[in-house]
Amino acid sequence: MTKKSGCEYPCSSCFGPENGECLSCISPTIKNGTTCISESQCNQNGFIDSNRDCQGFFLLFLFFHFLIQKKGCNSTCLRCYGPNGNQCLSCPTGTFLLNGECLDDCPTGYYSNLTSNICQCNVLFY
Q: Tens digit of pLDDT for each residue in 17-34?
């Protein structure tokens, strides 16, 4: 059953009142399963098909959402995609993300980005 009104933004038509119950989306968002996301979100891990729907992103999104919400992160991680210490997505202040791990210090060839809490490759390193 399609509702024309009472849909949560950015749904333009829906089968329920919540975002996540969308049948179509208000431009510039695009449909990703039954939710609406930005084109840039889709392009990160999927592609936009000829119907202007996101393909390939939805299952990856559900997988990460499930792991982040349902599993406890390792104590070294701020956010994660699994319970192990090498499955971090972001790190607490004072530690730096490199290859899924939060490190106290970045290794040789990297520098500590204090804004993003990641180890970044030092392009000047030879």
A: 665 678 888 888 888 777
